[in-house]
Amino acid sequence: LFHLQKKRRAATARRQHLKSAMLQLAVTEIEKEAAAKEVEKQNYLAEHCPPLSLPGSMQELQELCKKLHAKIESVDEERYDTEVKLQKTTKELEDLSQKLFDLRGKFKRPPLRRVRMSADAMLRALLGSKHKVCMDLRANLKQVKKEDTEKEKDLRDVGDWRKNIEEKSGMEGRKKMFEAGE
């Protein structure tokens, strides 16, 4: 018993050690990835955005502004072109998906419902005209006659309550009640 507990503790300690080692490794990997992304970002900015050197004279400053405006316009044109291409491809994709939907069928398939079907109807549906055997399962059941209970007899004797009310209403009804009481 003591031996098993010792083994369990060792296994748990080993598992915890492995888990902490994996977490440390993951942290170092994440740090490496972040550093690599930062270096990549710096390289991209150095390549695409040269450092800005502001000239001293007003004429050179105006030339620099014109160049920047021209660059902004070209970038805006590229952005607009890519947006138009994206809209075009999105529209194309919607048209193709609509065609695919039309090819499959216009209506969604309804969820299947349970249908009560007799054995004969099921065999007819499966076999078609080959189905000859009649499987009336209810014919094989025993028929049990219902025994009359006292309550049912009383209910039958009472009959329709409206009749009883009409018979007992008025002076003749009271006379009948009086005579029945004697």
UniProtKB/TrEMBL annotation:
One Gene Ontology MF term = actin binding
Sorted UniProt keywords = Acetylation, Actin-binding, Coiled coil, Muscle protein
Report which residue ranges the record marks as coiled coil: 27-106
Q: List GO BP terms, alphabetically.
A: cardiac muscle contraction; skeletal muscle contraction
What InterPro entries does this protein's entry cite?
Troponin (IPR001978), Troponin_I (IPR050875), Troponin_sf (IPR038077)
Question: Got a GO cellular component term for this one?
Answer: troponin complex
The task this protein performs is described as: Troponin I is the inhibitory subunit of troponin, the thin filament regulatory complex which confers calcium-sensitivity to striated muscle actomyosin ATPase activity.
Q: Which family does it belong to?
A: Belongs to the troponin I family.
PANTHER family cross-referenced by the UniProt entry: TROPONIN I, TROPONIN I, FAST SKELETAL MUSCLE
Q: How does it assemble?
A: Binds to actin and tropomyosin.
Q: What protein name is recorded for this chain?
A: Troponin I, fast skeletal muscle
